[in-house]
Predict the structure.
Amino acid sequence: MRLPQIIPGLGRNESNENGQALTPEDIRYQKQILEEFQQLNRHLRNKGMSRPDRTMVRRAFEFAQKAHEGVKRKSGEPYILHPLSVARIVVEEMGLVDVVSASAAFLHDVVEDTDFELRDIEREFGSKTMQIIDGLTKIKGSMMAGQPEVISKQAENFRKVLLTIADDIRVVLVKLADRLHNMRTLGAMRQESKLKIASETLYIYAPLAHRLGLYEIKTELEELAFFHSQENKYREVAAKLEAEKAEMRDYIARFINGIRSALRPTGLDFEVRHRFKSIYSIYLKMLRKNLAFEDIYDKYAIRIILQTREGIERTDCWRVYSIISELYTPNPMRLRDWITVPKENGYESLHTTLGGPENRWVEVQIRTTRMDEVAEKGVAAHWKYKDNGEAIEQPFTDWIAQIRNILANPSRDALEAVQDFKENLKPNDVYVFTPAGEMLRLPVGSSVLDFAYKIHSDVGNSAIGAKVGNRVVSLEYRLRAGEMVEVLTSRKGEPKKEWLHMVQTPRAKDHIKAFLRKQRRELIDKGRDLFRWRARQYGIDEQHPYMKELLAFFMEPTPNEFYHALATRRIAPEKIAEFIEFKKSGKELDSESLAAWDLKRRQMEARFEEAGIDPDHLILSKDAKIESYKLAKCCNPLPGDDILGFNTDQGVVIHRTACPKALQLMSSFGSQIIQARWADGQCGIAFLAAFRVVGLDKQGMLLDLIRVISQRKKINIRKVSIESQDTLFEGIFHLYVSNLEELSKLMSDLQELPNVYTVNRLEFGQEESA
Ligand code: MN
């Protein structure tokens, strides 16, 4: 085929090849094409591409322009805008500033879609560019969708292409750029095609980009694929993320300002940025870990990027780490050092999680500009050239060799080969060993913590790290096949909420959750005591009508959440005084705050309902919609007691079924009885109980009793009254306990004390007589 005439002075054409006058739209497009090309050209020049090379790139552009002349894309744009965009992605976004990559990008659709042949390309642009176009042409079209025989054929094509990766990885890079632009312009396609292309993108291209460390491109591919395949879901998550971004803006600014002021005196050349997780990755996390949007805590990260010189990169990163750890308390369990040992895809960075203002955990990533470029651009940043144009990409040599082995094996059929390739991108299991040589199988991505829980829950709960080979690694270190792992434990170690994000296996998750639930209950108890202690002086308690206002004032959905916030100092206990001041001043909460609180409360209730948990651990009969309940003072029912409810003007009152007063009520007002039982599992609320201790009156008796009681952290003393008659000691204890079992255990402990004769629970009405 004859080569096209090269048209100099592009954009000055006033007619098309048929001699028809150009429409204003054509002229606008020509102007756009010219501007975009000039931008690309400027970029090439700024990045140091030689003039002869730039001339070659221009020729590739003009060749493509001629070859695709008169063809329009689905969107109505001239076709050339597509290869031009692909070239710009390759050069400007991937950073592949070489003549072969840029030319191949321009020419990638020429052989497939026009009358030109490979040898035309070879003659004009050389064999290297021709080989890449050859590879690209072979994967043209969709690969992974359709009937089995189609898939098989596509797989065969794909295999061929993958073989060429081993020759020149630029085939894949240009292909990814091509796919990215097609995804960016997917809107013009029919819904059916959109779905097919989007799923293909998620199936093969995004993992491929990830494996090559092309983080930005991988992310964008996923976002676009998610958008085009599940637009409603995408918009839902996106809207929530936007709201959170707005809400977090001031906080992040404050956090960053702290870092800036701390680093400025060091004279280090640094930049602080922040980034939010992508919509798709948040969605995936919600899906995989079965979490609500609100429960994903690591939605953003702060990044500190250092301009430094080779040789002191690592030192400078650690220096920054030590400075910001002075500023905000680091969580040592969340330290990840990918500087000493980079990730397989070349990623280098130092990650830490710091407790920022208001005790919020914030992930901070520390890296140099070089590391940042590797993180964003992956293989493309590693791109180096020898004089003869041969590519070398050191970190990928092994991987490429592996791929080549898989693909070159003639005994496998093509589909199997692609399957293998996929598995190579993402293998399913890793096999690791205990120090005793026992082999354990874990899902890929499993951490030291998964391993520890696989051995035993006690090992998991007390794990602090591990020895892998001869180095010590953190709990979240991801195990690789064949490693020997020795878990390090400490009596001081205990599971943290963040651990849930470090594990993959359901077993580990269940154990951590169980521990956290227990811990939460303890915190709630502690917070309740804190609150009572503060509030007593002001005459407010949970039963008081102020409780609702108090919760709204602090924007806490339930009393338990409020207590938890107090115990963890998310709300400083001193702040209760602020609320008292507020009440004293006679002010009212405005309706906006109340509405906001009410919304939060209802959202939480809905979540609880979904999870089958009653927020206050009491299940009342389904047909009664009960806003609140009270525990009858006459019998002080405890979880574990058989109970029933009475509908009264003041809401539902819960009695023990054995309560004489309840019996009386039942016989008189049977229709107002509501069936009630305690929710399964442990209870976060403490209940008032009373018992009498009788013993020998000796010095120190009361102290002994209180010592035993205070050993049980979940039990708090409300009131004690003592009486001595002759040598007999009688004490009545009013306590808050979480359930019947707890109370029974305590009572039997007290019974064990020397000089104690009897310990009896006070039954209905008895405490009044005491
Ligand atoms: Mn294309």
In short: Residues 82, 108-109, 178 surround manganese (II) ion (CB under 6 Å).
